[in-house]
Amino acid sequence: MLCNLNIKDLAVVESLSLELALGLTVLTGETGAGKSILLTALGLALGERADSGLIRPGASRAEINLEFSVADARDARLWLEENELSDDEEVCLIRRVVSQDGRSRAFINNRPATLQSLQELASMLVEIHGQHAHLRLLDGDEQRRLLDESAGNKTLLEKLAGIFRHWRSVRDELDANSKTIERGTAREELLRYQIEEMEQHGVEALDYDLLSEEQTLQANMEKILAAGQTQLEQLYDDEKCSVNALLAQAIHAMADIGHIAPDFSEIETLLTEAQIQVKEAVGELRRRMEKMEADPKRLAWVDEKLGELHRLARKHHVAPRDLRQHVENLRTELGSIELGTEKNAQLRQEMEKLEREYRELAVQLSKSRLEGGRKLEAQISSVIRELGMPQGQFIIETTPAQSNLPTLFGNDRIEFLVSANPGLPPRPLGKVASGGELSRISLAIQVAATDAKTTPTLVFDEVDSGIGGGVAEIVGQKLRLLGKDRQIFCVTHLHQVAALGHQHLLVEKTIDKTSTKTQVRKLAPNQRKHEIARMLGGVRITEQTLAHAEEMLAASGSSLDI
């Protein structure tokens, strides 16, 4: 619960510190006294949008500090621990500072925090019902939220939302992949045609560089054979003038000289080695020439294949020697398109699996909503009748949504229906005849739905507008009953409600020549009597009015009966 509220330099509040207690705390004051500033401060501290216009004139910044006891707020304690923001198991400090430049800073247990974190934590500590709460109740999403909260569907909804997000992610991936495949259909046909064309010409078996070498060889075969034959004659076959014959003569001459001059024997050895090399060269030349012959048909085939490679290379805008790699690239691209089709099948299977899981949970959720709806509509109908609508009937209609596709919140359409008068069929909440009836129905819904909530602190800001008399007293009793096991704040203009508070805070505005200030003070029993009398009698307070106020306080009990 909220233990302390401290405000500094916010609007008309210069400095304010309030110690707060369990039970129903009522806030009253003259119209325009500034009752709303407390709710403004509370909302700002809990993550609402900051506005530098809220800073008191002459001040450099506004600051709000809240101290909560989280002993009765299990979810908040767990959140603080998970986010490593817990200093004390039972106390949580929240601070919000707004500067003149419009910037703001937030702190949780004296550590800087983002507004998102602050809002997450705040939702587990405080719930505020504003003056226009009945307008929010006209929204279908709000009606569904209230039903789910009352029925305790939080865990089911979290599981359902997880499956839905996974399903949506797979669906988006399937859509994107399907579009890629659709765009690739024409490309796939082209790729198959190009690969088939390459296969028909045997591109993958042809080596452009080797064919080019063979073409050069075949085109020059006659020249090669003629030159080879000439060299055979000059090197060996001519018995008189060949290199071999001349070397033989030289070797013989050096052998004769060597007998006379031994130093020439080395020259004989070199010439003998040269002759051996010449004979080996002639042998290799002869063997190669024996393997070679002009083949016009082979040359024509090579020319044809090279021509095909050049034509295909121009067609595909690649170099002829890169055609084999190009075919491999085409196969890889075609394979990726085919894999896309296979992936689509896998994604569809995954979607079907997720949809089955979703349907199972959605059926459980629908069943829980139907059961919870019956309980809640009975509770709300009972409260409506107590609030001056004796024939009032409240119905929660749960029907299948028009679309069968998974959604974040299941496949139910939730609508609140009301019959305010006998003989009239239930109608949607937004079509209730009078604003006063709508206010009372709204309050009945809030009171009944709140009974199932675990939020330790609830704030009602003039939700009792549009009612009076005995109904107002019943409203006060309902709020007081809610305050038996939690903290309730109610800003009210009704003396019937104010008299039923466990504590009473008075909001007062003082004006002097230079400034306007708002102060809030806790009223003692005698002071409460005078404030209730003011609310009863207006400007002129009589002894009779004071006696009436005292009687009302006595009837409600001035002590905290919780």
From TrEMBL:
UniProt-listed GO biological process terms: DNA recombination; DNA repair; SOS response
InterPro entries given in the database record: DNA_recomb/repair_RecN, P-loop_NTPase, RecF/RecN/SMC_N
Keywords for this protein: ATP-binding, Coiled coil, DNA damage, DNA repair, Nucleotide-binding
Coiled-coil region list: 337-371
GO molecular function: ATP binding
GO cellular component: bacterial nucleoid
Domain RecF/RecN/SMC N-terminal: 14-511
Alphabetical list of CDD domains matching this protein: ABC_RecN
UniProt cross-references to NCBIfam families, sorted A to Z: PRK10869.1, recN
Protein family: Belongs to the RecN family.
Function: May be involved in recombinational repair of damaged DNA.
Protein name: DNA repair protein RecN
UniProt source species: Candidatus Methylumidiphilus alinenensis
